[in-house]
Amino acid sequence: MGEDAIEAIGLRRTYRSRTGWLRPQRREVAAVRGVDFTVGRGELFGLLGPNGAGKTTTIKMLNTLLIPTAGTARVCGFDVVGQTREVRRRIGYVFGGDRGLYDRLSARDNLRYFAELYGVPARNQKRRIAELLDLVSLTGRENERVEGYSRGMRQRLHIARGLLHSPEVLFLDEPSIGVDPVAARELRQTVSNLAAAGTTVLLTTHYMAEADELCDRIAVIAAGRIQALGTPAELRHHADGRQVLEVEAYGVTDDQLAAVHRLPGIRETSLVVRDAAQLITVQSDVGVDVQAGVLAALSGVRLGRVTARQPTLEDAYVAIVNRASARPVGHGADRAADAAVPA
Length: 343
Hints:
By secondary structure, the protein is of the alpha/beta class.
């Protein structure tokens, strides 16, 4: 495979902020605290972590949108600070959300416009646009205005836009956020096809199933540092020696969740909101029967199904992230981040 497509060594990024008017105070916030990893050419590499972990900041340093406070990074052998132009010629960047497209233009006209910006030769544009529309399954809909597209179709068009100049490395920053399950499946197939064709892909996501299905290797980042790195199978070992109890509930309070977490033998607790229901996931030591204690701690709460199962990649992820945090995932301010991690 030759040299690595991406190499990060000791990457750090610190933000300075100022608060107060009469007696202003300056403080520094370390978003990324020394990140090291490499991505091989043609590899589909996942960067996972909760909100605020440093995923997007890391990607923006690698794709030249942010200058590192310290450390170095190279993409396709070029330094991201000293050789910015060479890096930008070789990368594409796709982010989640609805920004970055012109709603009143058709998909084809959007791609024509961005092809000009990317410097795609005019003689190649028609062929390249047709190839990409086929790749992202928008052939037949390319003359419709983007304002009528579903969110999944918009995201596939974002990917086509990022590939117009045939980049060697594609950064996908939470491309399936807010996309319905059917559209997310189509997006995963598109990303898988890209990697199979030889494009190096660095993917950030909250979704464990997406990472498990797609990624050759995964790095888990929390508190601005890489906490674990390996194949999905290797990361699952972080949940070895544990068993999992899932409880569907309605109206669980923070105090009750904290009481569950304090029970003997319990290692991790998390809570995910799904429509009107709450899904509480409890990891405990193998051989310790915690079900009676959990149900007693939830006394007075309306309960649905209660299921015991073996740990998954998501359970290993929760264990890794919680080790980097002073509080269990699912409590207070962490709940919003945890709610973005469905099974």
